[in-house]
From TrEMBL:
It is found in: Membrane. Keywords: Membrane, Phosphate transport, Transmembrane, Transmembrane helix, Transport. It comes from the Bacteria. Coiled coil: none annotated. InterPro entries: Phos_transporter. This is Phosphate transporter. Its main location: membrane. It is a multi-pass membrane protein. Residues 378-411 are annotated as: Disordered. Belongs to the inorganic phosphate transporter (PiT) (TC 2.A.20) family. It holds the Pfam family PHO4. The chain crosses the membrane at residues 42-64, 76-99, 111-132, 139-162, 224-243, 309-330, 336-358.
Length: 411
């Protein structure tokens, strides 16, 4: 019994640390485009994102229920079997999070968490302990559909935004009014992030409490102290580390115009909020990236850089199996060595995090050593400095050219 309690406490501590890494790893993406367009200063943007993440975490618990009462058949496993697996899965998620943050590889904290849990469960118990129907319907399919949906929405909104403000064509970007709109839309993205990403850690802790018998399995709702702890932790992670990443993202999106940023953020926020209400566990990084690409394509004369877009897509596909492999290795140590394996996992996890953190401090912050998937997404679309004329402009130019000889004859 004492061992189960100790493992439960370790799981809660590790889950909250993952929540913290999620804060500085992902949440800054909400403020990437307003930083790029000058709508918000970096520190103001991160402080705003942190506060709204805190608020958003209290608005919905549907995603938490998906994690705590859907992915794993917790009712079929004893606490002594399930708690070490959750512990191993969190180690896989945190290790992959920190490694990709250091290397600047495209990644998703959400998929790192799910991959770690699934990989650990497959090794520790077997495939029968996983509800693949839920995994497919609420994780895999949303991961494929949501970025495309967000891109289409952003493309459409960008087209509409430029059509409505057509009078500014051919002039210095006079669409600066969208900068004020960006403050609102980027705030919505940060709020939406809290309703989705913070929920995942709540779900993991709730799952651990159910496994330990500290919460009734029929009530998948997170307890109040779990909601408060996860909300505060992800907000703290955003404020403590997010500004470092957001500065990099802002530099990487210097070609994004206010109208594009407004469109991308509106698309991201609407997609995430709708998914949170339905209990879909999304990758906010992927949704934000899809929106940035869609808004880029919405500008006239743009073309897709397929090599860059392909690299981003490969990064998305790699995260789930890679974090699953790390979680499986951690679970393997538990299967082989029992309680000793848990201690070894804990020591290795601390060592890996410390080494990766110290390594990151040695390098200057730039696009090569900080997470910049959303910034890279902006590079996946080639937008000319001077977009080609619209059909209307071509007609007006042709009409003017046709009238020129007549005027000369009149003279």
């Amino acid at each position: 019994m004492e061992t189960a309690v100790l493992i439960l406490l370790l799981v809660i501590a590790l889950a909250l640390f993952f929540d913290f890494t999620n804060g500085f790893h992902d949440t800054a993406n909400a403020m990437a485009t307003p930083i790029a367009t000058g709508a918000l200063k970096p520190k103001v943007a991160v402080l705003l994102a942190a506060g709204l993440n805190l608020v958003g975490a209290f608005l919905s618990t549907e995603v938490a229920k998906t994690v705590s009462h859907g992915i794993i058949h917790e009712d079929q496993l004893a606490a002594t079997a399930l708690l070490p697996l959750i512990f191993a899965g969190l180690i896989g998620a945190i290790t992959w999070n920190m490694l990709t943050w250091l290397l600047g590889l495209p990644s998703s904290s959400s998929h790192a968490l799910f991959g770690g849990l699934i990989g650990a469960t497959l090794v520790g118990v077997g495939a029968m302990a996983i509800d693949f129907g839920v995994v497919l319907s609420k994780i895999i399919l949303p991961a494929l559909i949501a970025p495309v949906t967000a891109g289409i929405i952003a493309f459409t909104v960008t087209k509409v935004a430029y059509a409505v403000t057509r009078r500014h064509d051919g002039k210095p970007d006079g669409r600066d009014g969208f900068r004020w709109g960006q403050i609102f839309t980027s705030s919505l993205v940060a709020l939406a992030h809290g309703t989705n990403d913070a929920q995942k850690t709540m779900g993991v802790i709730t799952l651990a409490l159910i496994a330990a018998g500290w919460q009734n399995a029929e009530h998948a709702e997170p307890q109040l102290w779990v909601i408060v702890a996860c909300a505060v932790t992800i907000a703290l992670g955003t404020y403590m580390g997010g500004w470092r990443i957001i500065r990099t993202l802002g530099k990487g999106l210097t070609d994004v115009k206010p109208a594009q940023g407004f469109s991308a953020e509106a698309s991201t926020a609407s997609t995430i909020l709708a998914s949170s209400a339905l209990g879909f566990a999304l990758s906010t990084t992927q949704v934000a990236s899809g929106s940035v690409i869609g808004s880029g394509l919405g500008r006239r004369g743009s073309t897709v850089r397929w090599r860059t877009a392909g690299r981003i897509a490969i990064g998305w596909l790699l995260t789930l199996p890679a974090s699953g492999a790390v979680g499986a290795l951690a679970a393997l140590l538990v299967v082989w060595f029992g309680a000793v394996g848990i201690i070894v996992d804990a020591v290795l996890a601390v060592a890996i995090v410390v080494v990766l953190f110290l390594r990151s401090r040695r390098d200057e912050v730039h696009a090569g050593n900080a997470m910049s998937e959303v910034a890279d997404s902006g590079l996946a679309v080639d937008v000319p400095a001077d977009p080609p004329p619209t059909r209307r402009q071509r007609r007006e130019k042709a009409a003017a050219a046709a009238q020129t000889p007549t005027r000369e004859e009149d003279r």
